Each structure stands twice: as C-alpha cells, then as structure tokens.
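Problem: given the chain below (153 residues), write out its structure.
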Amino acid sequence: FLPPESKPPKPAYDFTASAEKRAAIGTYPKFVVFEAKHISKQFGENDGKGITQEAKNRLGRTCDGAQMSEPWTDKRIPRALERGYPDDAAKRTQIGLSIDKAGYARWIFVCLPGPTGDTQVTRLYVLIDVIGAAMDLDSIPAKARKLPSGGNL
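Solution.
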C-alpha cells in the first residue's frame, strides 16, 4: 500500500467522523473508487515513489480531467450506479446519497512484474491512495472535446 502510512484501517478513512473522533477510531473507507493499471516495467518493491509516478503517468487525460481526479470520478459515479442498477432508480438515488454523505477514497491498483531473479514472486500488487500519495491529479487540465465536425470545444 502506498504510501505505507496510509494503509487501512486508518482514522483518515472515516469520512463521517469529526476531527476529534478521527484520532480514536481506525476504519476502512465505506466506498472506494478503483482504477487498475498493468505496468510491465520492473521496480524494486521499496521504490514507492517510482511506482507512484509511473502509475500517475499511465492515467489518461480525458475531457473530464485526469483519470482518478475528483472531477473525473464525480462524473463516473452516477454512470456506474446506472450500470449496476439499470432498473432501480430508487436504489441508485439511495446509494448516491450514501456516497455523498460518507465520501469515498480513490485507489489505484497496480500490477507489476515481480523482482528480477525471484522465482517465488511472479507479480507485485500495489494499491496507491491517490490522496495519501499526494498525486495532485485535479490540476491536470482536461483534454478538449472533439466536435463531430472535427473541431474542438
């Protein structure tokens, strides 16, 4: 888990708690938005900065902002609920309100090749907390939308 000090359970993931309560109770986030990336480049398992930077480089720049940025995520949560509950508007509304109230964490799941020469470890799996790793995805500008005629907005 990167950064290691953000590995749950942590009080920081209790999005509903007051600042005083956060010091007392560790928890897992109620909702997590995941993005998965497969990276074939070798990294040492202690190269957290390198892994985090490479994961950030692999995130796409969309018309809604960078993948896993807050604007990008906020636009996709309702779409995900629509796909998950296509015939249940009440359920989508209920879960959407729960997400708004409880908040959500943003984690990137990275699959890497295992360390060179290690026959026991064939893959290295890493979860990166976007906020905890200070990835600053919100400052990456959105990609211009293409108009049907080929122009940009």
